[in-house]
Backbone:
């Protein structure tokens, strides 16, 4: 029975199989003409091709034994395709007639296969050709568009919200951290790619040994740019309110052993040239501040904090800058770099300032019209010798700086006060580092030496603080002198031992810090008289500070962990106002820091940091006796001990990047707590402020949340970046002999977008929204709050060789009353392509807005300032690059 | 004696030159982006054209033609002005960025001929004696550069090849030596790192705008390899100071 069933089943299957096998043959024709090279396709019922062939020279085709054939399609490039549904039978001599093609064949549309960002290991490359448009001229124009990168107002380049630690041009560190010279001047046409070197360790010896969470930036030049002198020049002039000029010539040479960057600039259009040569990435900043290598004003004219609007709107300047950098390869590994610059600046500003001091029971306001003219001469010289190999690292930096300022101020209120400020400043410092690798261990010797000599003199006419300084009688003038000589030496040796994935480091060093400070007041009545104690102080300060630092660093794949402790013994000897005998103050401080970083994937990394520092201030911060800071503020410090401060910082950050989608995001939460033993009590007497130092706990707490997001949209050819910051701070202040707790909350929203709408139409959009509110913590009483909004829309259209640009700026302020300001700038730019020359004509501040209000809140002081702005002006000239 | 030998050689060359194919009908030209990769790095990236008429197709480097024209212009300029030949760094870089061969497919004789150039002389050898390949048609489909494509695989002894073809273009042709699929090959890649993708189509291209198939000397792949090796040896010999000199020998 089973056999019978099997036989029947097999017969059935065979019959079915034979039925589904078909034979097809025939011809492909157009009327009576036979068509060769036609493609004949056989599909099954799932629309899959199961057989195919081509018609031969006489238009014939043939298929044998086709299984599961469903349809036949004949196609030819010159004829319309034809489809025949097949039945389960053999087709012999099937003649297929084709008609001439009426429909078009599909078009090939190649999507942009180039991607803006590519990543290879730790190097991220931006293909700038995708973002470049015809209005871009220098490197900075491009950097501002790149997702993941932001350029701050002073030119600092940040990657994922952290300042870069090195700036290379074709792999060479020519500019150190004065990279504004390249950002502002290097022609965009010379640049091939911009590369971010993630987790960049600048010391080659420590590569893969000591982890770095900061990035380096490399500007890759085009091949033809490497072999010639590059340059950019501007020759612009204009009119109104006076003769305007903006001239510059910058030269770059990256060829051979001698590399050079040379820049000469002068202008009076509000472009401040001191930004051009500032150090943007000095890891040594804390040490430079402590050693007084960086100039700080102890006496000053009454002035305002720089407002957040374009500098060229309110600055009336005359700047001349000459800077030169040479980088010479002395041997294959040893480099010598020389930087020399001179900067002359004159800047005048006028503003109407209302200072309101919110005291517990009343509000004290000062209204003053301020006219300041500042003038300074600055000279800089830096020499660097560097060797950076896998086995040895040597770096010696010698710095020289001399500057002199001669500032004049005029304050108009009920009566007029004239101010004169002179601040000659001289500093030399030398920083030497030698690192050597012996087997897997690293040894280093470091030495930092600094000498500073400065003299600051503020003369005020007419005499102020009459009751305090001249028995309530009026007098001609008073001059506050501040003379400082500082020697600072920091020498240390360090070792790093590598044990598998753990590095143990030890540092032993000594800081020697000596300051001699003279502060005195000279009043002019009928003759010049130097006031006696407590208005005169000759203070000496000496700190002998040995320290020991130990650290453990663990590096393993996705995790990086380091912890370090610092024990330092500060042995301070100093003088006080009443007692010229030496006072000894020996303290032992323990500081520590730790950080951990975990990389979840190539996209996400999280890190947490904690550090605690204790330090003692120097007598520069604790000037004994009376000290006249400006015409209306005098400090009075008694025999206070030196201020001791404890600072504790915790932060958590989360980084996300998706290279394929050109998306970057970064989140930071930080908590900063500072406490010290000194608090100033502000007292108002006869329209003057007296600040008296009190030995009271001074606690400050600051919390901040920051979110940064940036993305490039391939299809829209546009980039968008946004920053949101929320900051809250709690401070203790002492006013009119009363202690107060204040809370300040601020919110900043920033959005920046740019789009290449078409090849000839470009749009830039910038929005900056800011709210600030201030409370009395205990009473929840609102002291002052304000909002400000700034929007800028730039629209550029290229018509043949003419680029027409409109810039509309809207500024809004709700204090002292709601105020909207609109600025319109128009620029016409004609590019002579053959010679890379731009002929430009600019109409600035077309609406002729002549003033703008800014608000600043600090402690309990609310400052509203009416700024006087540049009126309508016309500029024109040529810009060229080669 | 050597004169007879020289004449014989010339005669032999002339016979071989006569075999050169010249397309002569207006047809469609296809542009491909050709890449050679090794691991993750791109060794070569070139723009190539596939020109097809009824019986023949010719696949060649467009960049090479552009480069040659540019060089001729430079040489002519130098000759006219009597100056030095001004060669930039890019000229050297471009030289290594060409597809080092061109391919002729003759549908009439069912042959694939590869042409390579040594010392400005073209040599052609038959790579495949038949255009027919044992492609396996797969069910996978994809849209590549706006074209609906189907997948096909062809594996031989050493090579693994994946092609994506478009039946909307009923031309059984493709880049390199690939062909014999029921539609134009839009994208192809193999295990040696070669890949090509269709980036443009030019319809009704006049013969004048198409590069002529070069006159070549027929040889075998084996003989050409020997010739190349000898050429390299001579080059290095020259570098090492062992100059090659042509000495006049008396019979």
Residues:
């Amino acid at each position: 029975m089973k056999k019978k069933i099997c036989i029947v089943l097999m017969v059935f299957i065979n019959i079915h199989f034979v039925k589904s096998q078909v034979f097809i043959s025939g011809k492909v024709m157009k009327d009576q003409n036979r068509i060769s090279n036609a493609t004949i396709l056989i599909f099954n019922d799932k629309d899959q091709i199961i057989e195919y062939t081509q018609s031969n020279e006489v238009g014939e085709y043939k298929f044998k034994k086709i299984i599961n054939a469903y349809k036949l399609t004949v196609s030819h490039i010159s004829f319309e395709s034809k489809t025949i549904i097949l039945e389960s039978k053999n087709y012999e001599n099937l003649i297929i007639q084709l008609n001439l093609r009426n429909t078009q064949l599909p078009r090939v549309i190649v999507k942009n296969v180039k991607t803006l960002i590519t990543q290879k290991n730790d190097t991220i490359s931006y293909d700038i050709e995708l973002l470049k448009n015809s209005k871009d001229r220098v490197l900075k124009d491009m950097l501002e568009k790149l997702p993941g990168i932001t350029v701050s107002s002073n030119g600092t380049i940040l990657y994922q919200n952290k300042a870069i630690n090195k700036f290379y041009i074709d792999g060479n560190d020519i500019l150190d951290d004065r990279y504004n010279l390249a950002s502002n001047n290097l022609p965009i046409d010379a640049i091939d790619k911009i590369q971010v070197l993630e987790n960049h360790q600048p010391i080659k010896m420590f590569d893969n040994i000591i982890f770095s969470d900061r990035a380096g930036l490399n500007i890759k030049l085009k091949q033809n740019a490497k072999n010639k002198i590059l340059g950019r020049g501007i020759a612009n002039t204009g009119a109104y309110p006076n003769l305007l000029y903006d001239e510059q010539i910058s030269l770059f040479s990256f060829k051979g052993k001698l590399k050079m960057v040379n820049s000469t600039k002068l202008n009076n259009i509000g472009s401040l040239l001191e930004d051009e040569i500032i150090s943007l990435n000095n890891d040594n900043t804390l040490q430079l501040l402590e050693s007084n290598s960086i100039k700080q004003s102890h006496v000053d004219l009454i002035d305002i904090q720089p407002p957040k609007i374009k500098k060229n709107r309110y600055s009336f300047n005359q700047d001349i800058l000459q800077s030169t950098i040479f980088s010479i390869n002395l041997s294959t590994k040893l480099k010598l770099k020389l930087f020399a610059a001179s900067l002359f600046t004159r800047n005048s500003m006028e503003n109407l300032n209302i200072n309101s001091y919110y005291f517990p029971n009343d509000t004290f306001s000062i209204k003053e019209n301020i006219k300041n003219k500042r003038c300074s001469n600055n000279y800089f010289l830096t020499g660097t010798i560097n060797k950076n190999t896998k086995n040895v690292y040597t770096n010696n930096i010698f710095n020289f700086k001399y500057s002199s300022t001669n500032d004049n101020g005029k304050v108009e209120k009920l009566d007029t006060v004239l101010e004169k400020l002179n601040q000659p400043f001289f500093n030399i410092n030398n920083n030497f580092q030698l690192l050597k690798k012996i087997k897997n261990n690293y040894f280093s010797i470091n030495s930092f030496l600094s000498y500073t000599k400065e003299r600051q003199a503020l003369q005020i006419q007419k005499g102020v603080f009459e009751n305090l300084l001249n028995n309530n009688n009026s007098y001609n003038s008073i001059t506050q002198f501040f003379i400082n000589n500082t020697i600072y030496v920091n020498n240390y040796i360090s070792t790093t031992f590598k044990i598998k994935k753990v590095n143990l480091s030890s540092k032993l060093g000594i800081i020697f810090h000596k300051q001699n400070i003279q502060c005195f007041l000279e009043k002019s009545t009928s003759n010049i008289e130097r006031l006696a104690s407590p208005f005169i102080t000759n203070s000496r300060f000496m700190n002998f500070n040995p320290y020991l630092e130990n650290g453990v660093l663990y590096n393993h794949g996705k995790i990086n962990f380091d912890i370090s402790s610092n024990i330092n013994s500060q042995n301070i000897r100093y003088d006080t106002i009443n007692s010229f005998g030496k006072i000894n103050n020996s303290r032992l401080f323990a500081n520590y820091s730790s950080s951990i970083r975990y990389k979840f994937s190539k996209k996400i990394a999280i890190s947490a940091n904690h550090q605690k520092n204790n330090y003692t201030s120097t007598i520069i911060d604790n000037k004994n006796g009376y000290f006249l800071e400006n015409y209306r503020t005098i400090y009075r410090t008694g025999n206070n001990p030196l201020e001791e401060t404890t600072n504790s910082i915790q932060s958590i950050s989360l980084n996300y990047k998706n290279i394929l989608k050109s998306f970057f995001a970064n989140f930071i939460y930080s908590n900063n707590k500072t406490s010290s033993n000194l608090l100033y009590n502000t007292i108002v007497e006869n329209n003057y402020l007296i600040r008296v130092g009190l030995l009271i706990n001074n606690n400050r707490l600051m919390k901040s949340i920051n979110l940064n997001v940036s993305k490039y949209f391939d299809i829209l050819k546009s980039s968008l970046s946004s920053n949101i910051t929320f900051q809250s701070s709690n401070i203790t202040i002492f006013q009119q002999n009363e202690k107060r707790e204040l809370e300040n909350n601020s919110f900043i929203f920033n959005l920046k977008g740019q789009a290449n709408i078409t090849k000839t139409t470009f749009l830039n959009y910038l929005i900056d929204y800011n709210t600030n509110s201030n409370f009395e913590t205990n009473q929840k009483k609102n002291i002052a709050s304000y909002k400000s909004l700034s929007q800028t829309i730039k629209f550029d259209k290229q018509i043949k060789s003419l680029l027409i640009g409109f810039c509309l700026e809207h500024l809004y302020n709700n204090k002292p009353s709601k105020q909207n300001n609109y600025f319109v700038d128009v620029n016409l730019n004609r590019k002579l392509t053959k010679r890379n020359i731009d002929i430009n004509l600019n109409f600035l501040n077309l609406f002729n807005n002549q003033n703008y209000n800014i608000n600043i809140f600090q402690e309990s002081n609310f400052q509203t300032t009416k700024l006087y702005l540049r009126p309508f002006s016309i500029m024109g000239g040529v810009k060229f690059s080669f | 004696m050597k004169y007879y030998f020289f004449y014989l050689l010339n005669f032999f060359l002339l016979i071989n030159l006569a075999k050169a194919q010249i397309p002569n009908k207006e047809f469609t030209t296809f542009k491909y982006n050709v890449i050679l990769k090794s691991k993750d790095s791109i060794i070569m990236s070139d723009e190539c054209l596939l020109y097809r008429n009824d019986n023949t197709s010719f696949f060649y480097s467009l960049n090479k033609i552009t480069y040659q024209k540019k060089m001729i212009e430079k040489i002519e300029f130098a000759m006219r002005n009597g100056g030095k030949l001004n060669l930039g760094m890019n000229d050297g870089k471009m030289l290594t960025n060409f597809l080092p061969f061109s391919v002729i497919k003759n549908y009439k004789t069912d042959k694939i001929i590869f042409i390579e150039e040594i010392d400005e002389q073209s040599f052609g050898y038959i790579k495949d004696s038949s255009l027919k390949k044992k492609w396996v048609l797969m069910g996978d489909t994809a849209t590549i550069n706006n074209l609906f494509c189907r997948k096909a695989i062809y594996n031989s002894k050493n090579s693994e090849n994946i092609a994506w073809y478009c039946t909307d273009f009923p031309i059984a042709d493709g880049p390199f030596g690939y062909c014999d699929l029921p539609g134009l090959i839009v994208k192809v890649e193999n295990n040696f790192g070669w890949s090509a993708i269709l980036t443009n189509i030019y319809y009704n291209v006049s013969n004048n705008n198409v590069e002529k198939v070069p006159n070549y000397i027929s040889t075998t792949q084996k003989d050409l390899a020997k010739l190349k090796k000898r050429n390299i040896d001579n080059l290095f010999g020259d570098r090492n100071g062992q100059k090659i000199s042509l000495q006049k020998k008396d019979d």
